[in-house]
Here is the input.
Amino acid sequence: MATIWKFTKFVLVLLVIVGLSWVVLANYSVIFSKTVVGEITGVERVEIPVALMARSDGDITSKVFSFAIGIKDQKTGEIYTASSEDRQWAVAQKGQCAEAVFLPYPPWQFTKKDTYFGARLVRLFECAK
Here is the structure.
């Protein structure tokens, strides 16, 4: 009976560890996101008509609203860059200030490690002069 109880505890602990690992891996970008507040150094709509016409999967709508974003962090002075399909970036302009959440690529994507995607605009405001 003691052996069955030990085995049951082992299986339960193993299931909890596997479950927690899966949650962290599945939500890596959200868990390790970075909030940046600072001046927008650049926001450009990415327009690649040839690539859009060549795609036949029907998911062109999201690519039409693709933006490249750069924000200079107020605290460190570092410029964070990312790509985004968030349509709110269409109204943002260089020189305005913004609070944005930058989602990092997971480290197991070796070619994109330590870079950001999906910059989510949280707040847009005029910079204090």
